[in-house]
Sequence to fold (780 residues):
Amino acid sequence: MSDFVHSGWGWFVAVPTVVSLIFCLVLLIIASRRKVMAADNSTGHIWDEDLKEMNNPLPRWWMWLFVITVIFAAVYLALYPGLPFNTGNERFGGTLRWSSVGQYEAEQEKARAALVPVYAKYAQMSAEQLAQDPSAMGIGQRLFLNNCAQCHGSDGKGSTGFPNLADNDWLGAGTHDYVKTMIAEGRVGVMPPMAAAVGSSEDVRNVAHYVLSLSGSAHNSVWAQLGKPKFATCAACHGAEGKGNPLLGAPNLTDKIWLHGWGEQAIVNIVTQGKNNAMPAQGRLLTPEQVHVLGAYVLSLSQPTRVAGN
Amino acid sequence: MASETVVSMYQAQKKIYARAVSGLFAGWRWALVWATQLVFYGLPWLEWNSRQAILFDLGARRFYIFGLVLYPQDFIYLTGLLIVAAYSLFLFTAVAGRLWCGYACPQTVYTEIFMWVERKLEGDRAQRMRLDASPWGANKILRKGGKQLIWIGIGLWTGFTFVGYFTPIRELALAASALGFGPWEWFWVCFYGFATYGNAGWMREQVCKYMCPYARFQSAMFDKDTLIITYDAERGEPRGARGRKADPKAAKLGHCVDCNLCVQVCPTGIDIRKGLQYECIGCAACIDVCDGVMERMDYPKGLIRYDTQNGMAQHLNRSQLLRRALRPRVLVYASVLVLILGALGTSLALRSPFKVDVVRDRGALARLVEDGWVENVYRLQLMNTTERVQRYRIQAGGLDGLRTDLGDTVIAVDPAEARWVPVAARVAPEVAAAAGRGSHPIEFTVERLVDTPADTPKSVVEHSTFVVPR
Fold:
């Protein structure tokens, strides 16, 4: 709107529009009568010796259709932004005060109101109850596919940098409330760059092999032994045994779940470069009731008894 | 210089008082009125599988036609139907002119019904003209008002029936008894009601003359071997009144007695004796009425008849006309029509009881999972096009040892429902390395399990790609 704040632009549109409407009407009236030859009903125009232009009048209702379109245009200009009828701050706002933003907001409001009865039943149910309700899980799946699957994958198993939601390994409490908070408010997971604290690049490599050893993954045991003392730096967050800390959201390093990639190189990269990993807040896009159902669906992904049918 | 006058470029609609007509072709028209209207008004009331037999559920995007459950993906059948309609129009028009306009077009059919109502209340042509000329009184108000009420009633019933194809008509009827339509139902019932009332009651031939594009382009499809409604000028002229016993030869007259009945019955108000005109909708009312006159005069019938321009000029007999009817363009239209009908029928008969769409995840093309296996994620949309629950098993193939996380899981889909199923497919590291980086064609085979004896083994193969990352 800011491009057209000057009311001169309103006049720029309104004046030619009104003038051309009047012009159309005048033209219609002027052109509605003409001279013809009384004898043969021709216009008197003859081409190629014998090709005569005859007078074949249109039905009059056809002309009225034209007049109706002009009346429609006048009414439309008065109701919708067009003519300077409105004395409010939007001079050309139209007497209906219609705007596309207003229409959008009204439609949003209507859609939200229509959702209320759909979700009213589910808001009273626990995650376990919802997991047993096929229609709730159907809604949850559609919400997931539309809002979450872009990063976490259609099956919720994520990929590098995007957590697997189906492995029952949570950085926090792993409860329904926790999942709902994550969805609504999002989260920023921070792994600071630790290379300076750990030491040389060889130290970093050794720490990486120690970390690999924690989960029993393939590693060089000599390097891992050398890396063990250096792990003290990491223990502040990941714990002395590397089991992580749900309060801080620090991942467990002793399982074989690798959010940022598997193997020496991936660990070295994370230790030297760190990582800011963001889950964007969805609370402004989804209603609390939708988050409630969606959270139950996400939890159900990691339940072994998940109903595969409908 | 001839004298000039100033005239308006627009003319008031001249009211046409078409005279009632009976005869062979009027009988055909009434047969088609009954046939088309029984189908139109009756179809939505039929039940099938304890649901409405024909229902176009726009909200749920399901189109039920007896045993068929069509999805928006089946739109090609509508294309086929439109092509069939178009080629039928071409074929009929090439053979016998505006048959559609004269006998089956809704404009003609509803005008016929509305004119019947008009005749019942206001009488035939002469009485109607008298009534219109007479001053307003109780009789005129009653007759005219009654006619309008019945017209509006027929219009609203037509609108109601039309909406009944899109909203279950029995529920709509209940809603109608309480005047409890939704806003859109009100709109469409009134819209189609008004369109029927306005077109068949008031606009009539104006629609054919000034609004309908088909009327115009059908004229362009005529050739000199197309059967049209023609007046045999050679036989009819010179026209003139004469006594029933008079010998036309002695009076130097043709067979046209100039009774003007052909003009009075014409619903578009033309004189067929002036030859082929664009206003002629080919209703053959003039043939019927003229044949009656010829019979009374004891002249041979067919002074006005279906004939071709060549037939008139060269005096062709019926079998010669028939031979010329089978000219190349007619044969081409007919064979294309048969071909498309055959293709449409075959396609419907062989239609799969379910459809499958594969949509691969685009956010992350591939991921490495435990032990270096490569995994791709897909969504399969399973669409059940029957009205029974179907169960499916999904398998992936195309790469060595490609397997899915579904395993032998059986997936059930409710009648006429569609369901998204996320599927993760994976290959071993050796296979991925052997296949190389990039995308590789794979396919998903969805097999329907045989649950009832009526089911035949059926599987659908859909292609997709499997991406091995760098």
